[in-house]
Design brief:
alpha+beta; 6-stranded antiparallel beta sheet; Beta-Lactamase; 15 helices
Length: 494
C-alpha cells in the first residue's frame, strides 16, 4: 500500500498555478500587496510594451496604460488595495509592442487577506478587446447614420415594442403629432390614436404579429385616423413592419399626414359631383328644348306643310288637263313638298322622337332600330325585358341616346351586318349591351381625336354615375357594356 501524499505547500500551490497560466497562455498578473511586488505572465509581457527590467515593478503599469485611462485604473487599484472593493473590471487602453493603443478588459479580484483582514494578494487578467471596440464604433457609427436617415425622413417613423410602447419617434413624427420625444418614449401607442379606435388598432397589430409577414399597409382600402397632442384628429396613410431583435419583437409604423390630400380629394369629388349634376341638368334642359322644337316642327310646321299639300292637291285637281306645263310645275312642287315633309319628320325625330314621350322607351327603340337598319343596311335584334320598357327620365332619354350613338357607330365605322341590343333591369341597375359583328375596336380607336361618339357614350354614362366597358378584337366585332344605377329615391318622393 502506497503512503498517502502530503498536502501541497503554499509554494507548491503557487507553482501549480503559474504552470497552469503558462500552459494556457493567459495574460495574467499576481500582485503581492504586502511585498509590493507583482508577477506578470509571459503572455502579458509579450503582448504589452512593458519596459525591460524586473517583472515585479508595480508602478511599471503607468508606462503601458493610456494617460487618459491611468487615473481611473490607479484609483481602482487603490480601492482594492484598501479592501474597499472585492472585484474590479475596467475597459482601458494599453500600448502594445508595436506601439499601438488597444482596448483591453482588465479584471482583478482579491484572492487572499492577511490576519488583519487587509488584502494580501490580488490576481487578474488582461484580455484584448480592441476588435470588440472597433465593432462597437462601427455599430455606433451605423446607429448614428441610421438615426440621421430616420430623422431626415419626411414621413413619420414610430417603433413600438411587443407591448405597443413607443421606442422610436423621429422628427417628422414630432412635427406631425406635436410631441417631444421625451413625452412619448415608453408611452403606449394608444396616446396617438382616438380612443374609439384603441381596441381595433391593438387587435390589428396583434394579428399582424401572429401573421408572420414582414410588412403591409395598416388598413387596406382606407385611411387611418390619428390624434395630435392638441386633440385634433387627422387622417394618415400608414404601413407597418415587424422584426425580431435578440428575442424581442418590434413593430415600426411609417405614416404620412394626408389631411391636405384627403381634403383635396373630397373637394375634387364634390366638384365632380357638382359637374355631374350640372351635366344632368344641362342635358335634361337640352332634351326638353329638343322636345319642344321637335314638337313644334311636327305639329306646327308639319301641319302647315300638310295644309300646303292639300292646297296643292286642290290646285292640281282644278287645273285643266291640257295645261301640261302647269301640271309639270305642280308635280315638281309636290316632290319638293314631300321631301320637305320627310326632312322635317327626320329632323324632328333626330332632335327627339315624340314617341319617346308619348309611347315610351320600348316604342322609341323599335322605331330607332327600324330606321337605323333602313339607313345603314344592317339588321338590329332588339331585346328589352318588361321592367325596362318604360323607364323614367332621365334614364329613358340617356339610354335611347346611348343606343342611338352605338348604332350610328356600328353603321358608320364598324361595317357591321348584324347588331344585337339587349336591355335588362337587374336589381337596382340597368344593363345595356350593344354587340356587333363588324371590324372590331382597336385600343387606339378609344384614344382617337375626334371620336366624339364613344366620348359621348362615356359622358352620358358618367353623368348617371354608371360604368361602361368597350372592347373588341380586329375582325371579331365590338361590344359595349353599360351599367346604369337607378336614381336614389329620396324621402317624400312618390
Amino acid at each position: 500500500m502506497m503512503a498517502p501524499l502530503d498536502p501541497p505547500t503554499t509554494q507548491a500551490k503557487a507553482d501549480c498555478w503559474r504552470e497552469a497560466v503558462l500552459t494556457a497562455g493567459l495574460a495574467v498578473f499576481d500582485w503581492d500587496v504586502g511585498e509590493r511586488r507583482i508577477y506578470r505572465s509571459p503572455e502579458m509581457l509579450a503582448n504589452w510594451d512593458y519596459a525591460p527590467g524586473p517583472n515585479e515593478a508595480v508602478d511599471s503599469a503607468r508606462a503601458v496604460i493610456h494617460p487618459d485611462d491611468y487615473p481611473d485604473f490607479w484609483a481602482r487599484m487603490k480601492d482594492m488595495e484598501a479592501g474597499i472593493v472585492e472585484r474590479a473590471v475596467l475597459e482601458i487602453r494599453m500600448r502594445a509592442r508595436d506601439g499601438s493603443w488597444r482596448w483591453v478588459r482588465w479584471r482583478a479580484r482579491i484572492v487572499a487577506r492577511g490576519d488583519d483582514g487587509r488584502p494580501a494578494r490580488i490576481v487578474g487578467t488582461v484580455n484584448d478587446i480592441d476588435e470588440i471596440w472597433k465593432g462597437r464604433d462601427l455599430a455606433r457609427e451605423s446607429q448614428m447614420r441610421l438615426q440621421g436617415i430616420v430623422d431626415s425622413a419626411m414621413d413619420a417613423i414610430i417603433s413600438v415594442d411587443r407591448d405597443q410602447r413607443i421606442t422610436l419617434f423621429n422628427r417628422a413624427a414630432e412635427r406631425i403629432f406635436g410631441y417631444e420625444p421625451l413625452e412619448v418614449l415608453g408611452q403606449p401607442l394608444a396616446m396617438l390614436i382616438p380612443s374609439r379606435f384603441h381596441q381595433q388598432h391593438h387587435r390589428h397589430v396583434e394579428e399582424f404579429g401572429r401573421a408572420g409577414v414582414s410588412s403591409r399597409p395598416m388598413m387596406a382600402q382606407r385611411i387611418v385616423t390619428a390624434l395630435r397632442k392638441g386633440g385634433e384628429e387627422f387622417p394618415i396613410d400608414a404601413s407597418i413592419s415587424q422584426n425580431e431583435i435578440r428575442g424581442h419583437r418590434f413593430f415600426t409604423v411609417i405614416l404620412r399626414d394626408v389631411s391636405l390630400r384627403e381634403r383635396t380629394r373630397r373637394e375634387l369629388a364634390q366638384a365632380r359631383e357638382d359637374l355631374r349634376e350640372l351635366s344632368v341638368a344641362s342635358r335634361t334642359a337640352r332634351e326638353q328644348e329638343n322636345s319642344r322644337i321637335s314638337r313644334e316642327l311636327h305639329d306646327e310646321l308639319g301641319q302647315n306643310l300638310t295644309s300646303l299639300k292639300m292646297d296643292l292637291a286642290w290646285l292640281e285637281a282644278n287645273t285643266p288637263r291640257d295645261d301640261g306645263k302647269f301640271l309639270k310645275t305642280i308635280a315638281a312642287m309636290r316632290s319638293v313638298l314631300d321631301s320637305t315633309v320627310a326632312a322635317t319628320r327626320r329632323i324632328s325625330a333626330d332632335l327627339r322622337p315624340l314617341m319617346l314621350d308619348d309611347l315610351g322607351l320600348m316604342a322609341a327603340l323599335e322605331w330607332l332600330a327600324e330606321d337605323t337598319s333602313r339607313r345603314h343596311g344592317f339588321t338590329v335584334q332588339l331585346a328589352v325585358d318588361e321592367a325596362s320598357e318604360n323607364l323614367a327620365e332621365p334614364l329613358a332619354s340617356q339610354v335611347y341616346r346611348i343606343v342611338q350613338e352605338s348604332l350610328t357607330n356600328a353603321g358608320r365605322h364598324a361595317a357591321a351586318q348584324k347588331v344585337r341590343v339587349t336591355l335588362r333591369t337587374i336589381g337596382r341597375e340597368i344593363h345595356l349591351d350593344v354587340v356587333d359583328d363588324g371590324r372590331g375596336l382597336a385600343p387606339e380607336d378609344l384614344q382617337k381625336k375626334g371620336s366624339f361618339g364613344l366620348v359621348g357614350i362615356r359622358e352620358r354614362v358618367y353623368i348617371l354615375a354608371g360604368s361602361v366597358e368597350m372592347r373588341g378584337d380586329a375582325g371579331h366585332g365590338t361590344e359595349i357594356h353599360v351599367r346604369l344605377p337607378f336614381p336614389a329615391i329620396h324621402e317624400g318622393s312618390p
